[in-house]
Amino acid sequence: MAQRDINIGVANQGDGDTLFDAFTKTQANFTDLYSDDAGDVNSIIGGASISVDQATGNVTVTNDSPNATHTGDVTGGAALTIANDIISYAKMGAEFTTTGAVTTALDFGANQIFTKTMSGDTTFTYSNPAIGMVKDFILTGDHTPTFPSGTKTVAGTYDGTVSNLIQILVVASGDYWISISKAQ
Fold it and tell me: HEC states along 110-131?
């Protein structure tokens, strides 16, 4: 496709293309753009990982180093994969790497380990749970803890005279399994 330039001439001199000729060139340029002869995609520069099929106009991006170190956000479609052993502990979010004291609310999106010394009977709540999460709760205090509806104790009993490690597994929405271990 060769672009057809319109001769606009000098203002008010009458030396440019006629209105008919100008719009004839305009229409021909649009026809070329919309018919896309596919061989015109030739201005993409990106090295060996980007190629253009001159027959179809398709642009292909390949990654010859899928296990390369990536920086920034990782986005993509269903075929996106993250290489094995590429995410370090330091890159994990606070919900997997921090400890925090709680009053009554255990925010699963905030910490991995929760701590609390009860000064009276306490009813706890969960927020931001996701299926498969396992959170650790170190609870002390010679009082009675109450956990949200849907929480099933699968092992152990709470003993307020010692520190208790309570592990909470999110099985499904509203379905939590806890196991309780005591410090020896």
Answer: CCCEEEEECCCCEECEEECCCC
- 10 secondary structure, DSSP code: S
The answer to whether 27 and 6 have CB atoms below 8 angstroms apart is: no
What does the alpha-carbon distance between residue 135 and residue 125 come to, in Å, rounded to a whole number?
Answer: 13
Q: Can you tell me the distance from the alpha carbon of 113 to that of 28, in angstroms, rounded to the nearest whole number?
A: 69
- Whole-number Å distance between alpha carbons of 129 and 171: 10
**At 23, which amino acid appears?**
F
- In terms of Cβ atoms closer than 10 Å to its own Cβ (0-12, 13-18, 19+), residue 161 is exposed
Q: Running DSSP on this structure, what letter comes out for residue 47?
A: G
Band of residue 16 on the pLDDT scale cut at 50, 70, 90:
confident
| Cβ atoms within 10 Å, residue 106 | 23
Confirm if 132 and 153 have CB atoms less than 8 A apart. Answer: no
Cα–Cα distances in angstroms (integers) from residue 52 to residues 1, 37, 58, 68, 76, in the given order: 17, 14, 6, 24, 21
Please state, in angstroms and rounded to a whole number, the distance separating the CA atoms of residues 102 and 95.
14
Overall average pLDDT of the 7-21 stretch: 79
Task: State the chain's mean pLDDT as an integer.
Answer: 82
> How many residues are present in the chain?
184
